[in-house]
Amino acid sequence: MANQKNEAALLKKVWEIDNVLAAAGVGYTDYITQLTYILFLKMDDEKEEMGLGSSILEGYKWKDLADLSGADLVEKYEEILKELSKCEGLIGTIFTKATNKIDRPVMLVKVIEMVSSIASLKNICKNHTETSSILYVQ
User: Fold this and answer.
1) Distance (Å) of CA 126 to CA 43, 121, 133
2) How much is the pLDDT for 122?
């Protein structure tokens, strides 16, 4: 029962983020892609907080993005996408040809704040695969 409430809360938050992205002129396909990038960075950060290490290079992590705003945030997000697309293995695959579609700084700030406000993805779902399946099935 508690897990269903957590899933419902996560889905509600995702739809709220969808509304922000739609207001920014981001189409559905781009919305899914951008949210995937941002959630991946956040989930990697939580994985690292749990002592499980990070798959992301230093300087291109959630913590390097989360406290920025305005043009600095947009520039850093674009730099992160560009650099991670050059990585080998799974990270490079996830970020292949990654580009920023949220070009209005105020909207990107709002999305980052909304993702940050999710209490903890790890408390909602047991693992990252479950989180992704909840988001994509809906």
Assistant:
1) 12, 9, 12
2) 54
Exposure string for 13-31, b = 16+ CB within 10 A, e = fewer: bbeebbebbeebebeeebb
Mean pLDDT of the chain: 81
More confident residue, 129 or 39: 39
Contact 107, 31 (CB under 8 A): no
- Give 52-79 pLDDT, tens digit per residue: 899 899 999 999 999 899 999 999 999 9
Mean pLDDT, range 109-114, rounded to an integer: 90
Give, in order, the Cα–Cα distances in Å from 83 to each of 10, 71, 124: 29, 18, 30
83: alpha, beta or left? (left if phi > 0; alpha if psi -120 to 50): alpha
Cα–Cα distances (Å) from 12 to 8, 42, 62, 64, 134, in that order, read: 6, 18, 22, 26, 12
Domains in the chain (CATH in brackets) are 2-137 (1.20.1260.30)
The one-letter amino acid code at 77 reads Y
- The label of the residue with tokens 């989930």 reads 43
